[in-house]
Design goal:
Shape: globular
Structural class: mainly alpha
Helix content: over 70%
Order of helices and strands: HHHHHHHHHHHHHHHH
Largest sheet: none
Strand content: under 5%
């Protein structure tokens, strides 16, 4: 991975190639989306916002060219630019300027909130819009006999009511994954071990803790889908990352076998989204209770 990061930092052509190719391949393999964004993040973190902006422009041209060849249209470049690369460029520039991963994570959460508000302001009926967008998937399931037509209508109508928050949260998580991968690559090249220390120190501001508690209270008073649950869903990636930071710090303090962390991430995949919610709750609690300090191993402890 260090060699791959070194290849990206050789110059604009190499970085643009990685970003553009990753973006096109992410149409088939969505997990490559954060890798594409990580190239933008790494270049911006190391060389600054101006160089990062130039890379974004070159990579966008690359995606337009590859998109025209692969799918017969350059328009995927615009979506990649607006949805993935521009937000990542802003977050990377913010992290470079503030050197605060906590502040940057909060900024990503704020951007997700703006996405939710924009969708609700610009779209008269977001749920109906999501039902229409998911129509091809619904039709395919009915056609293959996986679900009956009437049941499919009810199922997708229910899912659509939560999709605005879920979509914005997925964007936030993808931005942060790309940013964190880029930061990790930067540490591999120029500051070995630095990313681990930075991530374990992640601690969100109490304003986000207050926001989470208020939203939970409002949801308890007025249950069901709507603006309030959407806003909480968007903040979940931030709480999830803080929860993971707590676990990584405790893992280091206790000197546990790395297999514990491997098992944790396997559980996060197998028991999605329930496991993520539990870790996010830990992160929200840590904002107030400082779990890391309370559970840290005391000097001379054998546990």
């Amino acid at each position: 991975m260090k060699a791959f990061a070194s290849f990206i930092m050789r110059g604009y052509p190499q970085a643009a190639l990685v970003a553009a190719t990753g973006a096109i391949l992410s149409l088939l393999l969505p997990l490559l989306g954060p890798v594409s964004g990580a190239a933008i993040a790494l270049f911006t973190l190391r060389r600054g916002g101006r160089d990062g902006a130039l890379l974004v422009a070159l990579a966008t041209l690359g995606v337009a060219f590859l998109g025209a060849l692969a799918v017969g249209s350059p328009w995927p470049a615009l979506g990649t630019l607006l949805i993935l690369w521009l937000p990542l460029w802003v977050l990377a520039a913010l992290l470079r300027a503030t050197r605060s991963i906590s502040f940057t994570v909060a900024g990503a959460g704020l951007a997700g909130i703006l996405v939710v508000l924009a969708i609700r302001l610009l779209v008269a009926d977001p749920a109906a819009g999501w039902v229409e967008l998911m129509g091809p998937v619904r039709d395919a399931l009915v056609r293959d006999g996986v679900v009956q037509s009437q049941a499919a209508d009810a199922l997708f109508a229910a899912i659509a009511r939560w999709m605005t928050g879920a979509f914005a949260a997925a964007l936030v998580l993808q931005w942060l994954l790309g940013l964190f991968i880029g930061r990790w690559w930067q540490a591999l090249l120029y500051n070995p071990g630095g990313f681990g220390q930075e991530f374990r120190a992640l601690r969100l501001h109490r304003v986000l803790g207050v926001a989470g508690m208020v939203l939970l209270l409002l949801i308890a008073l007025v249950p069901g889908p709507g603006l309030i649950p959407d806003l909480l869903i968007v903040l979940l990636p931030a709480y999830l990352l803080q929860g993971l930071a707590v676990i990584h710090q405790l893992h280091q303090d206790r000197g546990l076998n790395p297999a514990w962390l491997v098992g944790l991430y396997i559980l996060l995949v197998l028991f999605m989204p329930h496991a993520e919610l539990l870790v996010a709750c830990l992160g929200l609690v840590d904002i107030w209770a400082d779990v890391r300090t309370r559970l840290a191993r005391t000097p001379g402890s054998n546990t």
